[in-house]
Structure formats: structure tokens, C-alpha cells
DNA sequence: GACCAGGCACATC
DNA sequence: GATGTGCATGGT
């Protein structure tokens, strides 16, 4: 019987061999990555790209400038990303925090300890655990494992966690307690799980061609969130 | 036309 | 504490 760590590493290597490096996060600056993390909530990345392109074309990939924009214009620019009224507020909440406490400069976050930063992010309305952890890992290079619905589906299907045990922190703990805190590993692993989820582990999965098909695999388990 | 997408806050019981 | 619902665009 393999250990949990060995099972996780099997999954990681099968996905990496099949898909190759995913080069996450798409985004050029920490601030752009943070905006993307909020905009992609329950939304496909292709829609988020349009919204970010609009912000970029308007020269607004800067916290202080974005913070000064009026809400109606912000809503219009991010409209393609969906939930545009909610997300405009969430972006505003984020820039308020960043501008008021850190002069609108993501570099000023480097001096803050990861746990403290996570708590501050979670205190912002509209930033939940996945968004906070995405910002920590992908924008700020902190060794925090990001989990999402795809991660949940893959882990349930391969029996690493029971469906009734599913909650964010337990799922996250499955990775962090079995793997060394390694930013490049956490980055690639999460991106690969999303890729596998997009291609194969959907609500109605297509498991036959999935790179993980050779592993112990429970087709009878509901591929739930 | 139905389903799905890299969540989260809030209401209600 | 658990469960249900609103939020919205765009691709398949």
C-alpha cells in the first residue's frame, strides 16, 4: 500500500508527464495576478482575459490608478468576466486595503509574514480561502497550496479523501502535511490539477483518456465539488 | 437551450 | 453549524 505522499507524487508526475509545465500564473505582475485571482472566481479564464485586457488598455494595472477609478467605469471594463457588479466591489475592497495599508505597492507585502498576510486577505470582503491562497502562492511566491473544485474532484475520485470529509482546510492539509513547502512544486501541482479537471474530471467526467486512469480509481464515486 | 466555468457572501432554518 | 441562493458573461 502506498503512502499518501507517494500517491500524491504519482498523480503529480503522471500529470506533468502528460501535460508538461503549465507556466502559471498567466500575468506579468503581482498586482495583475491578484486581480486575475479575484476575477476568475467561478469564471472561465478566457472571460477573465478580456477583462484584464480592458484594464491593461486603459492603463489601470496599477493599484492607485485602479483605486481612483469610479465604480461604473470599473464595472464596464470588467463586464466580460461576469458577476461584474460584485467583482467591481471586490476589486475595490482589495485596492482599498492595498492602497491604505501598503501604499498600493505589492512589493511592500514582502515584509509581512505569510500567516498574517493570509489573515489580512481573508478579512477583505470578497476574498475567500482560494483567492487568498492564489494571491499568496502565485503573486507573492509563498509556499501555500491552493485547492479548488477540480482538486476536490480528483482527490475524491482517487480515494485520497472521502466526499464527506471535503472542506477547504482539510483538502489543503492533505497536500501541505504530505509534501515539503516548495513554491515551484505547489505552483505546478495546482495548475496541473486544474488542467486535468478541465480536460477530464468534469461533473460528467471523461476518465478513459485521463492520464490518471492507470491509478486506483473509483468510477462509482460521484465527481462532486 | 442546457450546461459549465480556476468562489464568495449572505439569508434562512 | 449546515444548507440554499444570488451573482453574469461567454464557450461548448
The best one-word shape is: globular
Tell me the span between the first and last alpha carbons.
Answer: 27 Å
Per the CATH scheme, the topology name of the largest domain is: Endonuclease III, domain 1
Residue share in β-strands: under 5%
Overall tally of structural domains:
2
User: What is the H/E string?
Assistant: HHHHHHHHHHH
Cα-based radius of gyration, to the nearest Å: 18 Å
CATH second-level architecture of the largest domain: Orthogonal Bundle
List the quaternary state of the chains.
single chain
Helical segment count: 11
Largest sheet: none
Low-confidence stretches: none
How would you state the average pLDDT, rounded? 95
CATH homologous superfamily of the largest domain? Hypothetical protein, domain 2
Compute the number of strand runs.
0
Structural commentary:
With 225 residues, the chain is mainly α. It has 2 domains: 4-23 and 146-199; 30-139, Hypothetical protein, domain 2 (Endonuclease III, domain 1, Orthogonal Bundle), CATH 1.10.340.30. The protein is built from 11 helices and no strands. Helix 5 packs across helix 6 and helix 9 crosses helix 11 (183-199). The longest helix is centred in the middle third of the chain and has 19 residues, at 84-102. The chain is globular, with a radius of gyration of 18 Å. The model has no long low-confidence stretch (mean pLDDT 95). The structure holds a DNA duplex (13 and 12 nucleotides).
Amino acid at each position: 500500500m502506498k503512502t499518501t505522499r507517494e500517491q500524491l507524487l504519482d498523480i503529480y508526475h503522471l500529470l506533468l508527464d502528460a501535460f508538461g509545465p503549465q507556466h502559471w500564473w498567466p500575468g506579468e505582475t503581482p498586482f495583475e495576478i491578484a486581480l486575475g485571482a479575484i476575477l476568475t472566481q467561478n469564471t472561465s479564464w478566457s472571460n477573465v482575459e478580456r477583462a484584464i485586457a480592458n484594464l491593461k488598455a486603459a492603463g489601470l494595472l496599477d493599484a492607485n490608478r485602479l483605486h481612483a477609478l469610479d465604480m461604473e467605469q470599473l464595472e464596464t471594463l470588467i463586464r466580460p468576466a461576469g458577476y461584474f457588479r460584485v467583482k467591481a466591489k471586490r476589486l475595490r475592497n482589495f485596492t482599498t486595503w492595498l492602497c491604505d495599508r501598503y501604499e498600493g505597492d505589492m512589493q511592500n507585502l514582502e515584509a509581512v509574514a505569510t500567516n498574517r498576510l493570509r489573515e489580512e486577505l481573508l478579512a477583505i470582503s470578497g476574498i475567500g480561502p482560494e483567492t487568498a491562497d492564489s494571491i499568496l502562492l502565485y503573486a507573492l511566491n509563498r509556499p501555500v497550496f491552493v485547492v479548488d473544485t477540480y482538486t476536490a474532484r480528483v482527490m475524491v475520485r482517487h480515494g485520497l479523501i472521502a466526499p464527506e470529509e471535503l472542506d477547504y482546510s482539510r483538502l489543503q492539509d492533505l497536500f501541505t502535511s504530505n509534501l515539503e513547502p516548495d513554491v515551484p512544486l505547489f505552483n505546478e501541482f495546482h495548475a496541473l490539477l486544474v488542467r486535468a479537471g478541465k480536460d477530464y474530471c468534469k461533473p460528467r467526467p471523461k476518465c478513459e483518456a485521463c492520464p490518471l486512469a492507470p491509478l486506483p480509481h473509483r468510477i462509482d464515486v460521484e465527481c462532486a465539488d
